[in-house]
From TrEMBL:
Family membership noted in the UniProt record: Belongs to the calcium channel alpha-1 subunit (TC 1.A.1.11) family. Two pore calcium channel subfamily.
InterPro entries: Ion_trans_dom, TPC2, Volt_channel_dom_sf
Pfam families for the chain: Ion_trans
Name used for this protein in its record: Two pore channel protein 2
Compartments reported by the entry: Late endosome membrane; Lysosome membrane; Melanosome membrane
Length: 493
């Protein structure tokens, strides 16, 4: 459904499919690299006597061909480095050369080469796809120009010029369902040409307005008759007033940090929140005052026209409601302020919620710092432009989650909470059982979280080993395919 209703997703998927042959060549070279070093490792780490470093290396990581291949595949992602080489390295330091050479060739050369090929091929196919789309749009615009110019020629007995009358174009434009802001921009552009006929070049340029991002002008500020109010309006709308608000917010954040450090070793029921409660109350009162002064200076429409003000105002309103609720339930702060829990939340929970919102509110400084604002806007543009990739990833996640539920549902059963449940202290260190990875299963759509943890490739060898033991060695194919699709292909794109 998602793929059929998004032209950009279909275009992106087509480009990925066109890039697969070039990716396959590097993946084949990567597989050859794995096979050569796997066979070399199995021949190299054959212990001469029981208990030496080579023997432990063989028994742990190179016991058989599938185990050796899995160990080096995980090492390719550096998830088990340096664990995989420690047994042999403890016996002889020269064995480190084997693992260093493998990592240099595989992780630093071949994986980066794969990234470069994916980028280059995909960029070329995607650019060609965009050029084709642009050509089709210009061809359609040219066809529309020819039709409208023929209508113009039919209305004149002896046409002296070839072109499109602006009123004919506007009549057609009003019948088409388009975005209102873009339609208004095109109409203003047409009116700027006057009553002259539109040439083919001018007609094509009109469609460039649809590619421009609409920037809305802020509403006009309120006008006050009093000179004192006008001076106050200028002062409270100045950027220095924003700097003062940021400085106050920083002071609030510092005060919370200081009390977190002081009370780090104190139990919640033994903490005295008197001073921090007074400080937070004073800071929140300032935030409310700042909000009212900005509304006075900019007007309510002007205040709401800026997304940073909406973010700031919303959090300030929530903080005010929480503070009023705290005062209504637990009264005003006083020394030894540790009342019993009343209502839905305890005083400690209310304080944590207020402090968390204050920390989030500190993000308001981003628009005030130019370099940080540029970085933040770039990240937002990347997120906006990567919607097609995100849609494809959602589809891939869904497909692999359904497949994982079909294959591994009920395979791993978590121990009960009773006293008869087995103790994980006897489990090997770093194993699925010892790390208590029981929530990472495929019993329901929590499989999405399991797939995310594997995609990050941190400790993904734990999942490979656990599902091999509980389900069978063929389960590794599923996880390796997911790693290739998600971490290697999609993340590189």
């Amino acid at each position: 459904f998602l793929m059929q209703n998004s032209s950009m997703m279909k275009k992106t998927l087509k480009c990925i499919r066109s890039s697969l042959p070039e990716m396959a060549s590097v993946l084949l070279l990567l597989a050859l690299h794995l096979c050569v070093f796997t066979m070399s490792g199995m021949l190299l780490f054959i212990g001469e006597k029981q208990g030496d470093g080579q023997d432990r290396e063989r028994l742990i990581y190179f016991r058989n061909l599938p185990e050796a291949l899995t160990s080096l595949l995980v090492l390719l992602t550096t998830a088990n480095n340096p664990d995989v080489m420690i047994p042999a390295y403890s016996k002889n330091r020269a064995y480190a050369i084997f693992f260093i050479v493998f990592t240099l060739i595989g992780s630093l050369f071949l994986m980066n080469l794969l990234t470069a090929i994916i980028y280059n091929q995909f960029r070329g196919y995607l650019m060609k796809s965009f050029q084709t789309s642009l050509f089709r749009r210009r061809l359609g615009a040219r066809a529309a120009y020819e039709v409208l110019s023929s209508v113009t020629a039919e209305g004149e007995a002896h046409p002296r010029e070839v072109g499109v009358r602006p009123r004919d174009f506007l009549q057609v434009l009003q019948r088409v369902q388009l975005d209102g802001s873009h339609t208004q921009a095109v109409m203003e552009k047409v009116r700027s040409y006057g009553g002259d006929l539109l040439s083919a070049g001018e007609f094509q340029k009109l469609f460039n307005e649809f590619d421009k991002r609409v920037i809305k002008e802020p509403p006009p500020r309120p006008e006050y008759p009093s000179p004192f109010l006008r001076r106050a309006q200028i002062a409270f709308s100045h950027r220095y007033f924003d700097y003062l608000g940021n400085f106050i917010a920083l002071g609030n954040l510092v005060s919370i940090s200081v009390f977190l450090v002081i009370d780090a070793d104190v139990l919640p029921e033994d903490r005295d929140d008197f001073v921090l409660g007074i400080l937070n109350c004073a800071f929140i009162l300032y935030y409310v005052l700042e909000l009212l002064l900005k509304v006075f200076a900019l007007g309510l429409p002007g205040y709401l026209a800026h997304s940073s003000n909406v973010f700031d105002g919303l959090l300030t309103a929530v903080l005010l409601v929480l503070e009023i609720s705290t005062l209504a339930v637990y009264r005003f702060p006083h020394p030894g302020w540790k009342p019993e829990t009343l209502g839905l939340l305890s005083l400690w929970d209310m304080a944590r919620l207020v402090n968390s919102l204050i920390v989030v509110r500190f993000l308001r400084i981003i628009p005030s710092l130019k370099l940080m604002a540029v970085v933040a806007s770039t990240i937002l543009d990347l997120i906006r432009n990567m919607r097609a990739f995100g849609g494809i990833l959602v589809v891939v996640y869904y497909v692999f989650a359904i497949l994982g539920i079909s294959l591994f549902r009920g395979v791993i059963v978590a121990p009960g909470n009773g006293s008869l449940s087995p103790d994980n202290s006897s489990a090997p260190c770093g194993s699925f059982e010892q790390l208590e990875y029981w929530p990472n299963n495929f019993d329901d759509f929590a499989a999405l979280i399991t797939l995310w943890n594997v995609m990050v490739v941190n400790n993904w060898q734990v999942f490979l080993d656990a599902y091999r033991r509980y389900s069978g060695p063929w389960s590794k194919i599923y996880f390796v395919l997911w790693w290739l699709v998600s971490s290697v292909v999609w993340v590189n794109l």
